[in-house]
Amino acid sequence: MAWVMLLVAGLLEVIWAYSMKLSDSFSKPIPSLITIVTMIASFGLLSMSMRTLPLGTAYTIWTGIGAVGAFVVGIVVLGEQVSVLRIAAAVLIVAGLVMMKLFSSH
């Protein structure tokens, strides 16, 4: 169950990062509220997953999901630049996440 909570926490991190972008420095109420609510939920689920998962594993996977998810949202939704090097960097992050999961004792 800890892995499911961690996955959801990572996905919520992507949502709060995107809604923070939409909030225009917290000047727009709805995106600002979405940012705050999903941020709290993300941190809460991360915290609960850390009851059984090692700190290094949980935090690395949480930030990795957020980083790669935000990267994908940036490209797909916001039309950000796509380059071979940026994609290679994202692939390396995903490879690291897979290795963390495979070599975790939980």
From TrEMBL:
Main location: membrane
Localization, UniProt: Cell membrane
Transmembrane segment boundaries: 27-46, 58-78, 84-103
InterPro entries: EmrE-like, Small_drug/metabolite_transptr, Small_multidrug_res
Pfam family, one: Multi_Drug_Res
Record membrane topology: Multi-pass membrane protein
Keywords (A to Z) from UniProt: Cell membrane, Membrane, Transmembrane, Transmembrane helix, Transport
Record has Cell membrane as a keyword: yes
Family: Belongs to the drug/metabolite transporter (DMT) superfamily. Small multidrug resistance (SMR) (TC 2.A.7.1) family. Gdx/SugE subfamily.
Listed name of the protein: Guanidinium exporter
Native organism: Herbaspirillum chlorophenolicum
